[in-house]
Amino acid sequence: MNWLRRLSVPVMKTMWAVAVLAVALSTSACDSTHKTAGTGGPGATPGAALPRITIVRTGGIAGVNDTLAVEPTGAWTATDKAGKQRSGQLTTAQVDSLRPLAADPALAGEAGQSRAPSNCADAFNYVVTVGSERIAYEDCPGPDEPVATAKLVAQVISVLAGNS
Predict the structure, then answer these.
(1) Phi, psi of 73 (to 5 degrees)
(2) What is the pLDDT of residues 10-65, one digit of tens each?
(3) How far is the CA of 134 from the CAs of 14, 131, 138, 148, in angstroms?
(4) Segment holding 100, helix H or strand E
(5) pTM of this prediction?
(6) CATH topology of domain 2-27+34-161
(7) CA distance 142 to 6
């Protein structure tokens, strides 16, 4: 978990840009024959549904406005600031990799936290919704960083980047 905090803001911006670019460059949605959410993955209750996950990222030097959404069925959409939309379907394994992070009880605590203003210039701002929990934060390492939420965001980006 500490590796995420040690990454510099430019590295995180580059990681996000690469993931969004990979999704945006995909020329077709994934094969619809992929299975969707099945029985649970590690740390999840068998048969537990994946909650809807939405990540809105704004800010940064380029003034991005990106939205990533993963439905309980594993269907996903990515929309950039120009309104260009891509979509696809996650495999069962990909959904299973998200399920324990989305079920982390720490998310509820992070949703209730207020965060102090940061000293990061041109940082990305995130609004992450997991089921009914809403977590807003600035991508600036510090004591107020929502660790469980940042881990979920990194996994969603990783899964979608590999799914384009």
Answers:
(1) -80, -10
(2) 444 444 444 443 333 333 333 333 333 333 334 444 457 899 999 999 998 888 99
(3) 25, 8, 14, 13
(4) helix 92-102
(5) 0.71
(6) Mago nashi protein (3.30.1560)
(7) 10
In sequence order, the 6+-apart residues with CB closer than 8 A to the CB of 41 are 95, 96, 97, 99, 100
Tracing tokens 């991508």 back to the chain, one arrives at 139
State the amino acid at position 33 in one-letter form.
T
Spans of all domains in the chain = 2-27+34-161
Q: How many residues are recorded in the chain?
A: 164
Task: Collapse the DSSP code of 111 into the 3-class scheme (helix H, G, I; strand E, B; otherwise coil) and give the result.
Answer: helix
pLDDT digit string (tens) for 113-155? Answer: 888 777 788 889 999 999 999 999 998 887 888 999 999 999 9
What's the Cα-to-Cα distance from 108 to each of 18, 128, 153, rounded to whole Å? 29, 12, 15
